[in-house]
Design goal:
about 450 residues, mainly alpha, single chain, about 0% strand
Length: about 450
Amino acid sequence: MAMAGLFNLRQLRRWRVHSRRWRRRAIFMLGGLATGAAAVMLTLGADGVQHLFREYLKLFPYGAFVATPLGFAAAVWLVQRVFPNTQGSGIPQAMVARALENPADRIPYVGPRVAVGKILLTLLGLLVGASAGREGPTVQVGASVMAWIGGFSPRRQPGLILAGAAAGVAAAFNTPLAGIVFGIEEMSRSFEVRTSGLIIGAVILAGLIAQALLGDYTYFGTANTSLGFGLDWVAVPVCGVLGGFLGGVFGRILVAFADGMPGRIGAEIARHPALFAALCGLAVAACGYASGGATFGTGYLNARGALHGTQALPADFMPLKFLATVITAISGIPGGIFAPSLSIGAGLGSEIARFLPAAPTGAIVLLGMVSYFTGVVRAPITAFVIVSEMAGNHAMLVPLMTAALIAEACSRLINRDGVYHALAMRIYDRRNATPPSRVERA
């Protein structure tokens, strides 16, 4: 009898262990499916509202001077009153949530309200012409979905938030490898071995849902282009240096505004955030009008056209897109910088290609994308992996890697940290908590 009782006790313990493991796996898998569905919803919504805005401008060419300021003001008012912590890309908020120890403290950054508000306000921004992307918001939405599901297992929430962020990138761009690399390089700075398989599983399921609903697509289409040996390689250091410095300047501006403008101007901005957002919207409308509408929205069509040679970007596209994206980012409305950064990089590469007529333009455009994006986020591996995956081009891996490393070194001279980590540290400072750099390395 004693032996039988001991055997039954061991069986019960073994069953409990297996039950916990399967429950943990089910949480990750369910979160991956939900993140993929949310990414598809945001993708289709973003495409739809941008189309509506383009049709609106056809009917009212000066309409942006009304709709954009009003839309920016409304978005910031809703952020302040209804959906706090949804401003910007959302990636810094996901980083902060992952580093917090108390599950209740994570809810303001990755809760259900945050997910709903992020989707609605990102679409509102794109509906009125904001120079913003949907990919960063997808990261915060994915982290929020995972954190909500992980409420049944609070100890697993940090790993779930990491998985949700990685799945968000994978589903948004249809780039599963880039999603995993983003989780390692940007979100965690060190890979959690115990949850690595589950994170990859979540990424796979999010990608499968996106492919099932949107089809198996390459974000920028397949770009069969490569650099020849010799003079073509001059473009690599040129793109790396210019993209790194320009991206670093972009990040420095965002961090400076996050720190708060000094003097009376800063006080007035803090006192009247909706009015400041309306003024930013007016400036974004001016950039859009000056560019013939090219700087409105994510910039995806412009970047794709430049890459495939179907659209020649004018000389003023890159500076105007840079200005419109900076103004959108500092306005306080929800919206990401992934896609606009890639379009700015495409504009940079397009300009450099004018001075290298013998080199393939598409290859230099890819170099510009990687270099500028690296300069902004200071994540070179994520940059060259995501761009090569989005373009379906492996022949350019070595030049892209080289340009990314050069850009990272140049950006480091301007910014100590990438823009996401710098903004996350500002959020931590406001909470009077441990800086995230310490938490991430703990």
